[in-house]
Structure formats: structure tokens, C-alpha cells
Amino acid sequence: MKRTNDELPARGRHCVNVNSCSSEISNIKSLASNNSLRLNPTKPTEIILSTLEARLKLQHLHQVESIKMLGVTFARKFSVLQHANDILSHCSQSLFALQTLRQHGLPTDALQVVFQAIVINKLTYASPAWWGFASTDDQNRIEAFLRRSTKLGYQANSKSTFASLCDEADERLFHHVTYN
User: Fold this and answer.
1) Which residue from 13, 85, 100, 167 lies 20 to 30 Å from 139 (Cα-Cα)?
2) pLDDT one-digit tens code per residue, 30-84
3) Do residues 46 and 60 touch, judged by C-beta distance below 8 A?
4) Dihedral through CA 125, CA 131, CA 135, CA 137, nearest 10?
5) Which distant-in-sequence residues (6+ apart) come within 8 Å of 94 by Cβ?
């Protein structure tokens, strides 16, 4: 007798719950309706996060190659290249704004505070979720950006690397989870 995925013991289940996908979508529609919300049927998307080339093609939702969740872009092969590109682009624009502030006479120590508040916080936002998936090239690009920022005087001469900033963020997250 062949058992379905739902009938298998928890240890024998696959990561994919094909059988429950349509019922989950129905539950979401019902939840939205019960809370006087409308679900736009063109908006829900699905991304299959996998390093395998062979993927199960589900027909329930529109499949995408990457998805932005809470400001972090993930690709289906666990790549954060697009996220790294986005944050570096945004932070480069912030450097131009800092240059403008410097030209208008803002002191260096104030520029460094603004740099910390805007650029470092943008770079480290949700880093525990994405830094581990960053490729060596992405990591090197971010480290190079910070070295350039230090040379321009926007960051105090610190020996800390972006990797160490991410490690600190991981530790803070772990501490909050542990002691909450």
C-alpha cells in the first residue's frame, strides 16, 4: 500500500508539502475574507529555495527566480547577489549625500555619525538572515565599500570588518532569542 506524503511519519516526509499547497491557499483566502481584507490573486508568488537543479513545478502560484522578503532579496539558489547589489547601490547614493553635507560644512565627526546611522545600519539590516548566503565576491565588494568609506573619512578608522559587524549582529540576535 502506497502512502501519501501526509501519511508518512515526520522523519520520512519530504521538505515539500505538495498535497497541502491548495488547502493553504484556501486558508489564506478565508483568513483574508474573515478580516475584511481582499487578496489580490495576481500577487502571491512562490519561490523554491533549492540548490538542486531538478525542481518540483507546482501550478498553484506564480513561480519567481527571486523574492524580496522584509527588505532582503533571496534568489532560488540561496544567492543574495541582487540584495548585495541593491544595498551597495543605495549606500553609494548615501555617500554622495554625505559628500554634499561635507561641502556644506558638516564636521567630520557628525558625518561619521550620519554614516553609521544610514549606511552601516542599511548594510547590517537583517544580516543574520543573508550574510551566510553571500558569496565571496559579494563579501569582498561590501568590505571594499567600507574600506573606501574609511578612506573618504565617513567611517572612523576602525579595524572591524563587515564580517565582524555581522558576527556581532548574529550574537545579539542569538542573545535576544535565548533570553526572550
Assistant:
1) 100
2) 888 898 888 777 766 666 655 454 455 444 555 666 667 677 777 766 678 888 8
3) yes
4) 50
5) 115, 118, 119, 122
